[in-house]
Amino acid sequence: MPASPITDARLFKIMGKFMEYGFERECKFAAPCPMAPNTFHVTVVCLEKQNFAEYYDYCLMNRCPMRLSASQINPDRVADMLGRAAALRRPPAKFGGWVFMGVVPEFYMLVEGLMFVSDGCDPVPVPLIGIVDQMGMELEIPGPYEQPVLSQAFELVNRETAFDLYEPKMQTFVPDHIIKGFPIRRQLPLQSVPVLRESEVQFTPFCHSYAIGDQKRAPMCSMMHDFTGIEWIWPVRLPKPRKYIEAAWTPAATPTLRAVRPQVGEDGCVVKWAGTETVTEEDAADDE
Length: 288
Description:
single chain, 288 residues, alpha+beta, seven-stranded mixed sheet, 7 helices, 17% helix, globular
């Protein structure tokens, strides 16, 4: 079953009305990622009834357990939210799912960007919002400060930085001081993966392979795939097309206060080609 980010959009709106300080402030308390230098976890919100409005720290690299965030909404306010939700009729409130609250779904499409933010380390996958023109011919990716996931993951609110965009045809990064990395404009359908580096980063292993889709990668986690509720745009005709996981996340009653999902090969976890059919068992085995 897919981990739908917004089972009932009315719950999302109730949260927005009752939050004391706003989601942007709560995001400032996300933990730094111990597996990815210069990167922070991003904050997602649980919409399950028993754990409603709980904040969790999610690792974009999918290497760290997803745990409760250090900052949480006041329990009295959560009780007020649940009271308002209980009053919903036609139909009654339907709880469930997870959401990253920093994006307005109806205005954007999503594309996966790969960000090199530390010398010699793997790039960090980041969902980037973009706008398709009226003709459906061009995608414009604004930013970086207009990118909600990017802004939290790299703390752009508290510092200034520049990003260089990799150009596969030139096989090089174009320095931001020559041509700005953002906004990114690409003709559709996409022919490559947007790969960027912070301008001071010099060692970017396999950047060309990542850009042309020839680098082996683990499937995209279901949380990242689903937590904005926005449709993805995927590059086409890549040597190794993208895969993603379809699996439900569940808060777990453990001492470490985690949320968990089934792993590849376990019941409840399905690996799919991006936008197409289920992967064969042989292909899925390669993703473990």
